[in-house]
Design a protein that fits this description.
two-stranded antiparallel sheet, 5-stranded mixed beta sheet, single chain, 7 helices, 184 residues, Glutaredoxin, alpha/beta
């Protein structure tokens, strides 16, 4: 009886070990770098502090994707919208793109003052739901937070509205009526 139990236990262990080995990911996620993607590889995501340092040398608008780890719509927007080559190319060209975890206590500098990512998201950027995309001018002034999931077409319009500074001369409604993605 002891032999049967030992053999059964060993068989189970070997089966589980084989299952684990067969189902390991092929790519090591830590080996993939998003720091300096080449064309069409995706968005060049930066930390907030990195974006501000780059902005001091070469001013641009700042795009912030405010997310949480548990947010299903955030993950969907990453896969379906932010990974779109047209969106990634335009973001990399006109903006410094930042991922900001709305639940992180990590301290960063906003306009020279220390603040946690969580407090920045809630009190300055008014992010109360996720995802929220935030648009800043090159002086870190809030242009607008836009709450909710955005598909490629809508995000494309918003990026052009702020990226080309149409917000200075047109209302959002006027811009939507005149915008043609083919013209850009």
């Amino acid at each position: 009886m002891k032999k049967v139990l030992i053999i059964s236990a060993l068989s189970i262990c070997i089966s589980l070990t084989g299952f684990t080995i067969l189902h390991k990911p092929i790519v090591n996620a830590t080996s993939i770098s998003l720091e300096h993607p080449t064309k069409n590889e995706g968005v060049n995501w930066l930390s907030y502090d990195e974006a501000i340092k780059l902005n001091a040398k070469k001013p641009r608008k700042i795009f912030i994707d405010v997310y949480t780890d548990w947010c299903g719509w955030c993950k969907k927007m990453d896969k379906a919208t932010l990974s779109d080559p047209k969106i990634a190319e335009y973001l990399n060209k006109k903006y410094y793109a930042v991922k900001l975890n709305a639940e992180s206590g990590k301290m960063i500098k906003y306009k020279g003052k220390d603040i946690s990512e969580r407090d920045l998201a809630r009190t300055i950027f008014n992010a109360t739901g996720y995802p929220t995309t935030v648009y800043l001018d090159s002086n870190e002034n809030l242009l607008s937070p836009v709450p909710g999931y955005l598909d490629v077409d809508i995000l494309d319009k918003i990026l052009h509205y702020y990226g080309e500074e149409h917000y200075k001369t047109k209302t959002w409604e006027q811009f939507q009526q005149s915008y043609s993605p083919d013209a850009n």
